[in-house]
Every structure is written in structure tokens, then in C-alpha cells.
Amino acid sequence: MNFNKAVLIGRVCKEIESKQTPTGKTVVSFSLATNKTYTKDGKKVENVEFHNIVAWNKIAEIIKQWVVKGQLLMVEGSIQTRNWEDKKAGVKRYRTEIVVDNMQMGPKPRGAEGTPQSSTGEGEQPDPSKESEINVENIPF
User: Which of 75, 88, 99, 118 holds its CA 20 to 30 A away from the CA of 54?
Assistant: First the structure.
């Protein structure tokens, strides 16, 4: 039995690149950064990996519309390695990608389009004690 599945949770580290195939299918590609923190010789070390992500059709359209650089994203899919002949350099090139089957969006970075912003200013939370008290007589039920 064979099994090819990858699950990654990381941050989108480039703007989403979107293309249409000649048959009208949408395909998007982007990089996802994941990190691992460990201790070596008493010092905290962070190792970052960058993954090539590709999505097709409906998932690609959703990613294109809603996902932004810096956003936390969980992708689930299969690992695929493509190869091609680089005509200019005359060498064979390889690219390993995660082809998305499923995804879950996490929070967007502060200030990204579609991210709710506080009306009290950047980074401030409204103070509930300053809000006016609700008069129960004004509630229509």
C-alpha cells in the first residue's frame, strides 16, 4: 500500500500567483513558511523551511480571493516533484510541491485587507467600562 499525504501549518510568505490554463482552470502557487524551534548547546535555535504550494480549481479560487501574504494557513495535500529541461542552462530542473486537496485559513496579519481593525487605534482594544449602559426599556422584546 502507498500513501502520499502532507499536512503543513505555516505562514504565506509571498503574494499568491494566479494563472488560468487554456481550458479555463484556475491554478495558484505560493510559498508557505514553517518553523521548528529547538535547543542546541543551551541556545534556542529556529529552523525555517519554505514549501512550494500549488492549488487547482475551486480551492485555488478561494485562496486567490481570501488568502494574503503573512496569513496563517493549514494545507493538506500530496507531495509532487516535477522535472523539466532548462533550455537556457541545458540542465534538468526539479521542483517539489505540495498539491493542495484541503485547506483551512487562519488569522490574517494585522492591517491586511479584510482584517477587522479596532476603531480606537492600532493595537488598542476598546474599554467596555467606557461604553454607555444599555437601557432595558429600549429593547423591543
Answer: 88
pLDDT in tens, 72-92: 999 999 999 999 998 888 899
At the topology level, CATH places domain 6-109 in OB fold (Dihydrolipoamide Acetyltransferase, E2P) (2.40.50)
Reference 30, options 64, 79, 66; nearest CA is 64
pLDDT tens digits for range 25-68: 999 999 999 999 999 999 999 999 999 999 999 999 999 999 99
Residues in the chain: 141
Query: What pTM did the predictor assign?
Result: 0.73
Domain ranges across the chain: 6-109
Cell readout for 26 is 484556475
Q: Provide the β-strand partners of residue 26.
A: 20
